Every structure is written in structure tokens, then in C-alpha cells.
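Task: complex structure prediction.
Instruction: return C-alpha cells for all chains below.
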Amino acid sequence: MRIAVLSGKGGTGKTLVSVNLAAAAKTSTYIDCDVEEPNGHLFLKPEGVQEEEISVKIPKVNNDLCNGCRKCVDFCKFNALTYIKNKLIVFDDVCHSCGGCILVCPENALTEKERVIGKVQKGVSGEVEVWTGIMNTGEAMGIPIIKKLLVKKQTEANRQTFIDCPPGSACIVMESIKDADYCILVAEPTLFGVHNLNMVYELVKLFDKPFGVVLNKCLEEENPAEIFCLERNIKILGRIPFDHDLGTLNSNAEIAANKNEKYRELFSSLLDTVTKEVQHETITNS
Amino acid sequence: MKIAIPVDEKTLESSVCASFGRTPYFLIYDTETKESVFIDNSAAASTGGAGIKAAQTIVDNKAGALLTPRCGQNAADVIKSADIKIFKTTSASVKDNIAAYIDGKLPLLEEIHAGFHGHGGN
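Output:
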């Protein structure tokens, strides 16, 4: 059971929901795909951390062999290559590592070289296995790191796995939810929150993923995100109150479900609801 | 010498385009023959790296100077490696900027932005 937790912007509560569900599930796997600023490890505090560098392959030019035909320049859809003053120049951070330039070069002037873009860490927090993707500062593309994080997990589909996604609905989020069995959308109770919810709502529909919404920071007053869900018949999985105690625990990087009875119940109940939803999906779609 | 300017329309009456990499056209103006040539910017619809490709066009058209309101880092790297000077346009009118350049009144473009990379910017 692979559950992706996503939202249209940062600070909505993806990590709060993800780490607390992982804690409530006890034996589980937590994967932080928010590679630009992973923070789940701050809450789970994994031990025995091992890490592996992630690199991509980019072209390296031998200007002695290059005859200036520009086949590579014309081929590159991302314009990562340019030919100026009889010299081929590669823009490393624009390259998407497709390898096409190397294939089209008739002079074998291009070869592959490795470029490190980040790393993947693995550790253990109680019964929770913690994976963290970390992209190096200044890098533009985190997808190769996410691919590495999620490929390793494919063999353990029967383990409860929580994928803490990057914010938004861009390629990097698509990569994170691609193989998920279920998506949890976390929403804030404001009009801005509705706008962000709509972004991820459209994304999961496009990907044809079963999904439900967790309403976070709930107040007594009217909740525009709740109205959005009711109008579209979207399953509301749970409600997390806008609460001082929860805020304090979270600010101190504590996992609320491990520290407070009320929140243990809230997240256990949310986990039950999600598990039933996933089983229901499995039955109706099999 | 030839100078290149990103322009909104294929006429000398056009205004200078606010974007270098994604301008629809470039004017290549020859200050000696006073000849104007308008070329399509093939980079305008690029998925990425529009500035790099547009800069390649400027270099290939043998411009000695680029007049533009702004320019991204990657494009500036390409243009500078071809020893082309970048000047900052001081008004919207293409004609006025050509005249100001010839009179030596245009300043060099000092501020190179990091690039918008799909995030707009106006």
C-alpha cells in the first residue's frame, strides 16, 4: 500500500500527515520526496543513516574531434548546447540527461560524464524505515533522486509506505505519485487553500488515482476547502484542528501521534479510513 | 557593424521586446549600410533554454552588439563568449535606441538576471 501525500503549496501539512501516519502505522516506510527541502527526518530522527550519492549523465565535449556540424545543437530540445567561435559549449544545468547528443554526433566528439546532483539517505526510526532524498543547492531537477527513492521500494508494495511529496503539481510531483495506490490531498481552510487544492485535485484526476482530502488547520467557521469537497463529492478522510497543542508539538519537531493521546487517536483513525479506502479501491478495480 | 535588437513586430516602428530569449523577432541593423533585416526567433517556443538558443542566433548573424532591456545569465554567457557587447535599451522605441547607440548614449547592461526558467517575469 503506497500512499502519496500532496498539496498545492508548501506549509499545508504534508509532512505532518505523512510522519504521523507512518508513526500510527508502526511498521511502515516513510519516503521524503520533497528533495528541495526534506524535513521529515527532523521529526522521525532516523538512526544508522546510510547515504548514497545520486548522479546524472551529461555530455563531455572533445573539441579536437568536434567538426562544428551542430547536429547535437539542433537535436537538443532543451538548448543545452551551443556552438560559439568554433567551440561547442554545454550548459550542464540545462541538460536533461537524455543522451541524444552523444548518439547523433558523427565524430564521437561527445562522451558521457557523471555529475552528482544530490543524495539518498536511509535510516530507521523505531519501526519506521526512513528514506530521504536531498538535492544539492542550486540544482534544478530532482526527478532522478525521486526515481531512485521510489524504485527501491517497488519490491515492497505490501508494506505500508507513505510518500511525502514536494509541493505543487509539477513534473517532480507527478514522478512522486506515479506508482502510488492512493493519494491524500492536504488542504487549508482558505480561498487560497482552495486554489492550491484544486491544482492537486486536477493532477490526481489526470493520473486517474483514487484520492481523498484531509482538511488541516480547521476552525469553527466556514471552511472553503470543505465546501469545495462537498460540491465535488470528494471524500473527506479527516479533519485536523487548528490547535495550539498540535502546533507546539510540531514546532518542537515532535510526532504528535507519539506524544498526545488525542492525536494518536486522530491519526490512527485517519489511517484506518485511508486503509479502508485503498482496500475498497483494490476490490472495485480488480 | 551589425547590432541586434529583440522586437515585437517586423518594422522599424516596433517597440523593443521585453524578453530577449522569447522575443518573436530580432532586428539585425547594419550601422554602416543602414540596412534592416528582421529574423524570426526560433527559440521563442522552446521548452527550455530559450536564451541560449536566441543567443546562438545573434552570434550566427554576426552581430557586434546586442541592445536589450534585459538578459538572462545563460544567454549572457553565450553572447560574452562571442565577444558581443550587451547594451541596455533606455526607451521602448527601436528607432530611438538605434540613434542613442550610434550617439554612444546607451549604457552597458550591468544587471544579468538568473533567468526565469518557466516562471514568467514582467
